[in-house]
Design brief:
Elements lengths: L1 E7 L12 E11 L2 E7 L2 E7 L5 E2 L1 E6 L1 H7 L4 E13 L6 E7 L7 E6 L3 H5 L19 H4 L4
Antiparallel strand pairs: 1-5, 1-9, 2-3, 2-7, 3-4, 4-6, 7-8, 8-9
């Protein structure tokens, strides 16, 4: 189960570039249900995601590079590319995943925070650098972004 909140970011925190990061490329074979392929640095995954905005089922399966490259041309829409920074949130065990997009969505910045429970997610107070909460709008789900502007 994935439980997360998502925020639109207009000004990332100072020094965000110093945090661990990964280069991500992902594409969608299907958006209902969500079936995604992802390259994260030198790791490859196929992911199934169930319905939902705050909480939803999620399963990740490892892929080989060859399998990823075989599936990539079969993807629909835009292949999303982004750098993901993992920024610990002070005073908690939570981590903000700050995604800075390239390509079609150059300049778009989103932050996601995953939680151990729905209650924790509902009671979360975001740091000052977080912008508008877009969790429940669905407009910034990566599967929707892949369909185009």
């Amino acid at each position: 189960m994935e439980i997360e909140r998502k925020y639109l970011i207009t000004c990332p925190p100072k020094g965000y570039e110093t945090h661990p990061s990964s280069l991500i490329e992902q594409a969608y074979l299907c958006t209902q249900p969500v079936i995604r392929i992802r390259k994260e640095d030198d790791q490859y995954y196929l992911t199934y995601k169930g319905k939902g905005l705050l909480a939803r089922e999620e399963h990740n399966l490892p892929l080989t590079k060859d399998a990823y490259l075989h599936l990539l041309p079969k993807a629909d829409g835009i292949v999303l590319t982004k750098r993901r920074y993992r920024i610990p949130l002070p005073g908690s065990s939570l981590v903000a995943e700050l995604d800075i997009f390239f390509g079609e969505y150059q300049g778009l910045m989103l932050a996601e925070v995953e939680f151990p429970s729905v209650e924790d997610a509902e009671n979360f107070t975001p740091p000052a650098w977080f912008g508008r909460d877009v969790t429940f709008s669905g407009e910034y789900q990566n599967s929707k972004l892949s369909a185009g502007k």
